[in-house]
Input
Amino acid sequence: MENHFANLIQDIGEDLTREGLVDTPKRAAAAFKYLNSGYHLSLDKVLNNAIFEADTEDMVIVKDIELYSLCEHHLLPFIGKCHVAYLPKGKVLGLSKVARIVEMYARRLQIQERLTKQIADAIQTAVNPAGVAVVIEAKHLCMMMRGVEKQNSSMMTSSMLGLFRRQISTRSEFLELINRR
Output
């Protein structure tokens, strides 16, 4: 991977012997591997048996989970926050596991629409709740730094499963709660 970054740097007309660039291919390769480290994780590995019996059916929400991902079309970052809710049916996830699921899928080449669905499907698979809701709000550097160059634009996506899809009151409660500041 280092050689590929070295070639990219040379192909834009830079001098790899310049002091600031000597170790850049090595650093860029390490950064790219880290930014895409989600490929080496699985749902079972991330959950690590942190699923617990719980006598509750009330909504569980984890909001403002920061996320960083790379757009699969331009390899540029998109940055935002994710809000996740589920309605337990006898089982709950360890709190950090929700954020770890977001991280696992965000650390892959992505489009926001797929990322949102992958997170919802993973929560559904993990604890089979009565419903799952995921909303992601993100700014895409591929739209901000190039192309249309719209600095203040952001994208919102949602995935609603189970009761969040079928019951407007449940969906509305979730949306109201994540919009409280």
